[in-house]
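Lab notes, practical 5.
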Amino acid sequence: MEAILEQVEQLPALLTVSRSSLVREWDSVTLDRALEWARYFQHLHNRFRTRPVLREALGRRLRRGQPSTLLGFPILGRSPQLLGLALLENRALPPAACRRLIHSLLQPADEEVGPKPCSLPLLARRKAASRLLALLPHGPPRALEELEPQVQAEAQLLLSRLREERQEAEQAGEAAGRLCWLSGVLDQLPGPRAFKVVAAALLLLRQGRDTERAGSECRDGDRMDGNQESATGDEYVAGQLLSWLLGNPERFSAFCLFLPGSLLAPLAGHYSQLSRPYLDLLTGWGSHLLYDPLQGKWVKSCLEKAELSWEELKERFSSLCRGSVQLREQTQAALKHLKARDGDFEVCGLSLWTDLLMELEETLRKEAEH
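Output from the prediction step:
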């Protein structure tokens, strides 16, 4: 039994590597070995799922040395799916290994037993859709590249755990709502780590919906019932994460201050619940800047209260203006309102929002010309 526990302990490392650049060195043999390990972990799940004592022992070993408690025995049952999805979304995977992976997913081993065999071909469709989505200039796939593979792996595990909780609640006839459980898990992570995991989870949710939608459009005569059910589940999961984030103003402020504008802009563009609070935060931070005529620029009026410098504030608004059309229009409308509130001056140095709006419009005009 000890040998099995030592083997199970390697699953978190396998999932982390699958999202890293290390897969660039993988060939077909290495890929087959990784998939065999994933199927072996799934076999262990099927073998021990009716034995509570062993389930608990395997769960404890999975969590050994891990920074969070997101891992548990149910993860073993989805090892092939988690590994396959991570590899399909990893651009570092060589073409030969990628083709081998898709072939393996479309034709799984005969002995493989899973609760949803049809999910494996779906992963292959997601790969094709993700290749198209990767061509978009600003979207979740590019934003996810700013987060470490370990963070992405933890985010995927958190999403899996939340989906399990929702299914269990439905089966038990309970009302959806496990915010206390989610808070308990995230509060165990250091603040910056929790913020990264939540951001990655929200981006992964949106990416999954986009790739699934793109894949469904390629199927003639396929009904959308399954997609609608999946969308409902993802809306529930996203709602839980957003409730945790927005339920505490200080937490949301720290979240926005810690993460770069290049990550927050896609989040605000895809989740309307975030865009307005984020703009309000930027407005509040900008109010602590004063114009220094000697230096000819905006400076912090009080170092203890001013969260962002002029350059940082401008970068945040620039990221929003480079997002979706709706987000850009919302951002420009907010700046024009602030400019009008300050007197609607057209002279530099009188209103922060006038100067900011003029610079952003000039930058967007130059970018459009090129």
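Observations recorded by the TA: The beta strands are 289-292, 297-300. The chain has 19 helices and two strands.
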